[in-house]
Amino acid sequence: MKIIDKYILKQLAAPFLFGVFAFVSIFIGTDILFDLADYVIEWGVPLLTVMQLFFLSMPEIIVLTFPMATLLATLLVFGRLSGNSEIVALKAGGVSFIRLIIPVLIAAFLISGLNILITDTLVPRSNEFYSRLVWDIENQESFPTTQKHLRMTPIDSSTDRIDYIFYAYKFDGEDMTMEEVSFQDYNQGQLVQVIEAERAKWTNQQWKFLDGKIYDLQDGDLVPTMNFQEYAVKRLDRTPTQVRRSQQDEDEMTLSELWEWITLRESEGRDVTELKVDFHHRFSIPFASFIFALIGAPLGLQPSRSSTSIGLGLSIVIIFIYYSLMTIGSTLGQSGALAPWLGAWIQNFVFGLVGVALIIRAAR
Predict the structure, then answer these.
(1) If you placed Cys at 56, which of 130, 132, 275, 290 could pair as Cys (CB 3.0 to 4.6 Å)?
(2) How many domains, in total, are found in the chain?
(3) 349 with 302, same domain?
């Protein structure tokens, strides 16, 4: 790494950390504190629990501030370099503007990668613990491990008709059992068999129905053909983890879990367009750090950008435009007017093109 690269990255570090702190403070002051205050006043939540809620809410907020902090830091650093005529001196020494922004773009790309990693690991788990703690507070009891009135209706992709209908009165995710279960098997969209049982248990990687009866369809009527104490229903291909996932919100799932959930919902004939937009947002929003570096470097060349207040104000304006465009793209993606991936990425494409055009102009 050359001296000029180390110098620019060193200059970038402090304003980046300042930006993270500043934007986190804005989120806390305008949202988190009000929620925590409500729990203290209305529910009498003890201080230790409030602190737990506070720290559990931080990962999701911090990753949102990374792109904003990158934008602010880039604006301030290049504004200061321009204001002190260091850009002019470097250009006179044969260092082009594009060469100057390379370490910034690399750093922004790495920040985007780190953001995706945190979004995929720490954020879902912290959101899950936060939701369960809130449930405990509001319901005065532990978060339930059971789900009642479970129903699954996957679609056979080869025929686009119902594959089977499964119902359970209660599903317990802790001991992986179900109560009062019914499995209706279909062939070419026609009911052919019904299996009913008092219980079902996940054993040896398959669901086994216990104490039940099998009915076959004969001449339009369901006729009992067999009683059983234990019967393996191999066609019921949902694992307990996949069944339990229906209790989770999307922001409590990792990327792999969310994509698996999308695939399952799609196989059941559900509309997963909104879920797909959310999945692609897990990449597009963190990648905004790189996009904002493209925008911030050329915009920061004006000497007035070296002022922290002006840099912060300009950052807020750019962020507002970015998220407004993201909202429009998301709406179009969820409505089907755009492909889900395009609806999630359109703001990055627009800002990326603007950033490249500004860099080309600044490099002349």
Answers:
(1) 130
(2) 2
(3) yes
Under a CB-based contact definition with an 8 Å cutoff, are residues 87 and 97 in contact? yes
Q: Which residue has the tokens 């110098």?
A: 7
Parent domain of 94: 3-140+269-362
Amino acid (one-letter) located at 172: D
pLDDT at site 292: 96
Residue 1 has pLDDT above 70, yes or no: no
pLDDT at 81: 83
128-133: long-range contacts, CB 8 A cutoff, minimum separation 24 = 128/248, 128/252, 129/56, 130/53, 130/56, 130/57, 131/249, 131/252, 133/49, 133/52, 133/53, 133/56
215: helix, coil or strand? strand
Q: Within 10 A of 305 (CB to CB), how many other CB atoms are there?
A: 23
| Whether the predicted pLDDT of 304 surpasses 70 | no
Distance of CA 202 to the CA centre of its chain: 30
- Residue 185 pLDDT greater than 70, yes or no: yes
pLDDT at residue 217 above 60? Answer: yes
3-state DSSP assignment of residue 44 = coil
Same domain assignment for residues 221 and 197: yes
- Domain final residue, candidates 237, 255, 284: 237
Nearest to 254 by CA among 226, 294, 282, 224: 282
Q: Find all residues with CB under 8 Å of 293, minimum gap 6, and list them.
A: 70, 71, 74, 101, 104, 105, 107, 108, 355
Count Cβ atoms within 10 A of the Cβ of residue 254 and give its class: 0-12 exposed, 13-18 middle, 19 or more buried.
Answer: middle
Closest of 138, 69, 7, 21 to residue 289, by C-alpha? 69
Q: In this predicted model, what pLDDT tens digit does every residue of 308-341 receive, in sequence order?
A: 667 778 888 999 999 999 999 999 999 999 999 9
